[in-house]
Write a structure and sequence with these properties.
Layout: H1 30-61, H2 63-73, H3 76-103, E1 107-108, E2 111-112, H4 115-138
Antiparallel strand pairs: 1-2
Helix pairs in contact: 1-2, 1-3, 3-4
């Protein structure tokens, strides 16, 4: 008879009993729903990052490939999808920037930087970077 790899293994250890949690536990509270939706928006962030990589790759394929991509991106269904994408990305960004002061504790010597300063700094950086990107696309010097 073959020896067990772990002779002390027990399939159901009595101390490990845990209450069963329903699959839709997060519907019990609005804050849980917001949390789950924010986590779901990570998929939209991944799609946007992938689209950016595809656009960079297509630019290297030549003008004809780029024109085909732009033609596809101008289709009404794709534009509608990207408007929805923009809304979810804005929700994702705002909720994560609002969480930043809880996760990032800045100190200058013994003085703790107030949460509002951390929050305002992140929003200011977001605004400045967004304006730089808009200026690059519009062509403002």
């Amino acid at each position: 008879m073959a020896k067990a790899l772990n002779a002390g293994y027990k399939r159901h250890y009595p101390k490990w009993h845990r209450e069963r949690v329903p699959i839709f536990w997060w519907l019990r509270s609005a804050s849980y729903v917001k949390f789950m939706f924010r986590e779901l928006t990570s998929l939209f962030v991944a799609y946007a990052a992938g689209l950016l990589l595809v656009q960079a790759w297509v630019l290297g394929q030549g003008a004809a490939a780029h024109a085909r991509l732009l033609n596809w991106l101008s289709h009404p269904a794709v534009v509608t999808w990207h408007v929805i994408l923009l809304a979810t990305l804005l929700f994702h960004t705002v909720t994560w920037l609002n969480l930043t002061p809880q996760a990032l504790v800045l100190r200058l010597g013994r003085w703790r930087v107030p949460k509002t300063v951390v929050w305002a700094g992140h929003y200011a950086a977001w605004l400045v970077l967004s304006l730089v990107i808009v200026c690059l696309f519009v062509g403002v010097a």
